[in-house]
Fold this protein.
Amino acid sequence: MSNALPHVLISEVGPRDGLQSVKATMALPHKLAWVSALHAAGLREIEVGSFVPARLLPQLADTADVVRHALGLPGLTVMALVPNLKGAQAAFDAGVHKITLPVSASEAHSLANVRKTCAQMVDEVRAVVALRNAVAPHIQVEAGVSTAFGCTLQGHVPEAHVLDLAEALAKAGVDDIGLSDTTGMANPAAVRRLFKGLQSAVGEKAGAAHLHNTRGLGLANCLAAFDVGVRTFDSSQAGLGGCPYAPGASGNVVTEDLVFMFEAMGVDTGVDLDKLMTARGALKQGLPDEPLYGMVPDAGLPANFTPHVRPLRKSP
Amino acid sequence: MSNALPHVLISEVGPRDGLQSVKATMALPHKLAWVSALHAAGLREIEVGSFVPARLLPQLADTADVVRHALGLPGLTVMALVPNLKGAQAAFDAGVHKITLPVSASEAHSLANVRKTCAQMVDEVRAVVALRNAVAPHIQVEAGVSTAFGCTLQGHVPEAHVLDLAEALAKAGVDDIGLSDTTGMANPAAVRRLFKGLQSAVGEKAGAAHLHNTRGLGLANCLAAFDVGVRTFDSSQAGLGGCPYAPGASGNVVTEDLVFMFEAMGVDTGVDLDKLMTARGALKQGLPDEPLYGMVPDAGLPANFTPHVRPLRKSP
């Protein structure tokens, strides 16, 4: 890329993280329309679903169909979450460009979530990478370290443990390692410390920031991550899947607010804010009873706002 | 101060900025109880009211009584807003420790708000300083540059104009010059640029950040200001005076959320978060029909949260 402006990649997780967290199931045609609208707004990486058993997450049972559609959208990196080798096989079969594997830094969370220890999850990741190398070497494998900033089950998660886990994942052969504030316990100082630590531990494999807004620090934490060189940020349109401004919420950072912050700072996101607002309409059509959040959508853009939209980038 | 930790001063503006923005009037005994509760939580600077004609702001007509009470609270800097020389005289008579004069960087806003041009306001400030020097040389005079990051009436506010105004105010003899994002149009890059510019322009007189959360960037903007050396932050308990998460809101940064961010980062605010939550009760008693905001109050503190509360500081 040859942008003069600094730039970031906004990785939209709403169609996976958002849809898995609401009770209602969005019908397939609405999912396809929403993903298309997100792409039309300039988003160039979308986590379109998850390859997990349909009995666990019926909302995402049609992920392979969403992937098929998304693969037709030019310049889009089509991403899916997989919890294990079986999910990875299904994702590879569907033809995704990139998978993300959640690996919890908290033993308690890992056992509760996937009934595996951290070490067992690293073994699983190693098996996924071996499969990828054998059958689909072009597919990117990301590991997302969840509960990296603390865990509601376990409490404190030592930073050294997070970094050891990241190193183990790098050695297991993943391409990128992100850090997730699954429980909304991060703060800007911890974000800077841990992402700097991640860069020291795994170098070029240091990846995305997946931050929540549970206690209002979502954007401040994204800014802190940006300051230390993070350039990929997960967020969810309309904060889908849990009020980002309320108790107990899943509370993903709202894509609209995140894009606004960066664009206002002169950091290119490639996203057109007006078209991003339009994409909310597609989401609303598919889930008419879900509340849509977002402070920029509520307040509107400042009258004299000049976004830093660039020509859409070609490569994913 | 001899703190090993970095520290900040949280300047609570709820009793002035909050109360002036709600329709209901808090009865005097409730105001006194609330100010005492804020002080008990460790806040050491409180803007307790405004010396303006009672016909304009009947909610603050009893400011002199609030000042009298607040002067009895040990270690507290008792602050009041004054719009002009007459207000300053009243504030000096009441015995405040510090006054703040709002001076708009937007001509349109200045004319609409105080029917004076920016230059006329600088003259007014000069007269206030002369009075202070003559009758009460121990009283601190702050000028707060409002609409420093943009104006809903005028649109763009040139940064050079803001800095010229700050220099003029420094020459007029004020002790501190703060910058206010009156309209919620700031972003972290602009905050860093303008506060660094302020420091270059007026040196040690560079003062507080008064930032709003209109578009969700309040805490990110505070972090940005902290990063470039700002150490005094205005905020309002419970975001009183307008939903900080809604359209058209006044939207002061919520004191509870701001204190949480800094304490979580290991930055000493001197404020006890539990006692700050208790002070919300005093606010609620005085204004039972007003909504109280705050993401940390809603979500609760993380289970393993260790605040960085220090022994209460002695000097104001």
Summary: The CA atoms of residues 37 and 279 of chain A lie 5 Å apart. The longest strand of chain A covers residues 98-104. Chain A touches chain B at residues 150, 152, 155-156, 183-185, 187-190, 213-217, 219-220, 222-224, 227, 245-249, 254, 257, 260-261, 264-267, 295-296, 298-300, 302-304 (CB under 8 Å).
